[in-house]
Amino acid sequence: MSIAPAITGPALSLQNVSRYYEDVKAVENVTLDIAAGAMIALVGLSGSGKSTLLKMINRLVEPTSGRILINGELVDAVDPHVLRRRIGYVFQNIGLFPHMSIARNIAIGLELAGEKTGHAERVSELLDLVELPQDMADRLPHQLSGGQQQRVGVARALATRPGLMLMDEPFGALDPVTRDSLAGEYKSLHERLGLTTIIVTHDMAEALYLADRIIVLEAGQIKADASPKQLLSGQVGPEAEALVAIPRAQAAHLSELGKS
Ligand SMILES: Nc1ncnc2c1ncn2[C@@H]1O[C@H](COP(=O)(O)OP(=O)(O)OP(=O)(O)O)[C@@H](O)[C@H]1O
């Protein structure tokens, strides 16, 4: 099995970033420095601004004000197509092209980047990387399970060897077992490839397990920025504690059931 060469993910800096939709303050004055190679979880209730924040990094959404820098370079100084080749993007219901083979779906970013050769080798390497069998290359998306399709989504996002991965509820539509195992596998890919990853999730348990730093958003603002350990200590503030309380209560409930 061939292993992709190590990539070093970039550092990120968001400086006083806001995005308003008329009178809705989707993201308000967010300042955040993210170290190269970090795995960050963005959590918060529905509508707290997580997706908007993520999409400003790859310029799917433009900020109303503020600056975003990747390795010191302003994102708006980079052509959006070039920028998006450097940034992998995975989202829920990944949106594979239904009439294209899995191989072509994975290689689409290479095609768009004008790379004319080496697609088959890269697809083969990526299938290995996301632990899909090679013979899936010729299938169509509807011939794969939801979990397998999400793996294809991760492979597609990695095709152009980005250093930064933005993941918006990537495993949200999957059953809990598949979700857990894909999340675990992604975590080891992140480490092996030296990526910088920002993952949006509703699931605090997933955030605590995956990330080395968790950012809690509420009404577009950062309400907590802490390690899983700090969050579990209960010292980080009421917004974070409300989210941690859910997996805590579930664990307690299961433990009680186990005793009865
Ligand atoms: N294109 C848009 N036009 C108008 N308002 C928008 C637009 N996109 C987002 N918003 C609003 O901005 C706020 C933040 O939305 P966003 O999708 O970033 O939240 P979220 O935390 O990702 O939510 P969810 O967890 O439900 O996906 C919400 O009030 C939303 O209605």
From TrEMBL:
It comes from the Bacteria. SMART domains: AAA. One of its GO terms (molecular function) is ATP binding. One of its GO terms (biological process) is quaternary ammonium group transport. Residues 12-244 form the ABC transporter domain. InterPro entries: AAA+_ATPase, ABC_SmlMolc_Importer, ABC_transporter-like_ATP-bd, ABC_transporter-like_CS, P-loop_NTPase. This is Osmoprotectant transport system ATP-binding protein. It comes from Parasphingorhabdus marina DSM 22363. Keywords: ATP-binding, Nucleotide-binding, Transport.
